[in-house]
Design brief:
Layout: E1 2-8, H1 28-35, E2 41-47, E3 83-87, H2 106-112, E4 115-123, H3 125-138, E5 142-151, H4 159-169, E6 173-175
Parallel strand pairs: 1-2, 1-4, 2-3, 4-5, 5-6
Length: 180
């Protein structure tokens, strides 16, 4: 059994002061840093949108390739990350799930590394974390979502709770960081 941590989109534009800030998005960073050494493999996804992405018809411009907003949060222990996954890289690509990464076939990579258990954390619970966790479950990985290491956009009040309920109902396991 091999455990991997997948950090989803802990980028400047999703943290306070960013173009698409998630309330308390930066508060996931110390939790992630506190558990990062418990995993055999650590991966992190990045939204990596081209400036002319159709994604920006739905959302404010954010995480544009090669900008400060697309960088990881400065306090995240990036030296512990084994592989960075880029998603949303094409003009017509939303790239919500880390399994849509364009620079790697994530499922094949995880299987090749012998990963059986995938722990998902990051931003945002109700979009990219949810999409990533649901894809991981569908692909047969034992999938955990670390509930104190995620934060939601919450366009509608309670979207975070609905997302976690949906994730759980599809077979993902909800855990707290102190249970790892």
């Amino acid at each position: 059994m091999k455990k991997a941590l997948l950090i989803v989109d802990v980028q400047n534009d999703f943290c306070p002061g960013g173009a698409l800030a998630v309330k308390d998005g930066d508060k996931v960073v110390p939790v992630i840093n506190g558990i990062i050494d418990k995993f055999d493999l650590v991966l992190a996804s990045k939204d990596w949108h081209p400036v002319d992405s159709v994604h920006f018809e739905k959302w404010p411009v954010h995480c544009v390739q090669n900008t400060y907003g697309a960088d990881f949060h400065p306090d995240l222990q990036t030296d512990k990350i084994d592989r960075v996954l880029l998603k949303g890289t094409q003009n017509k690509d939303d790239g919500y799930s880390a399994f849509e990464a364009t620079n790697i076939s994530l499922a094949d990579f995880l299987r090749g590394e012998g990963v059986t258990d995938l722990y998902v954390c990051g931003l945002a619970t109700d979009y990219c974390v949810k999409a990533t966790a649901l894809d991981a479950c569908k692909l047969g990985f034992r999938t955990y979502v670390i509930t104190d290491a995620v934060a939601a956009v919450n366009l509608n009040p309670g979207d975070d709770k609905k997302a976690l309920e949906e994730i759980s109902s599809q077979g993902c396991i909800l855990v707290n960081s102190n249970e790892i």
